[in-house]
Amino acid sequence: MSEPSGACPLVAVDRRLEDVHQQWHQAEEAYFDPEAFRIAVQGAIATLRTVTFVLQNLKHQIPQFEQWYEPWRQRFGADPIMKWMNDARNIIEKQGDLTAHSFIRAEFIASYLDEGPKLEVPAQLFDQPWQLVKSIPEGPWVTTFARMAR
Question: 11 Cβ partners below 8 Å, 6+ apart?
């Protein structure tokens, strides 16, 4: 699909950025659905890369493109988040899916005064509070509440 003559040469870039914006919100909405979240995030990452492809393809229509583009390319190349994004896109397109690294942390605090023991227990995202309490290992510091829940 070509753009009408006289149209802004960056309309295709704007369209791709809007696509990414929608994919990002889809990922946000699907956060608790791992498969839908994976699809949306990986789609957004792959679509972001197409923004640079479209820009590079349009460089002959953009005055002083190289002088503008090269400093940004260097800046992004040195940025750790942008490096991760590039590596992630390479994994998605050449190797498969990104690995999920989400986790949940549950902590029991025995005192409001920060004087009692604290304990992290293993948990799954949708565990009920009683499941967390039951996962407290036995020990001399286990509260009456935890014993009652067993």
Answer: 3
- pLDDT tens digits for range 39-64: 999 999 999 999 999 999 999 988 89
Q: Mutual orientation of helices 65-78 and 80-94 as an angle, nearest 10°?
A: 90
> Which residue segment(s) compose the domain that 145 sits in?
106-149
Question: Comparing 140 with 84, which gets the higher pLDDT?
Answer: 84
Tokens of 46: 């792959």
- In this prediction the pTM is 0.64
Q: Which residues contact 16 (CB under 8 A, 6 or more apart)?
A: 47, 50, 51, 54
Which residue(s) pair with 107 in the sheet? Answer: 120
Residue 109 bridge partners (DSSP): 118
**Domain stop point among 94, 118, 136:** 94
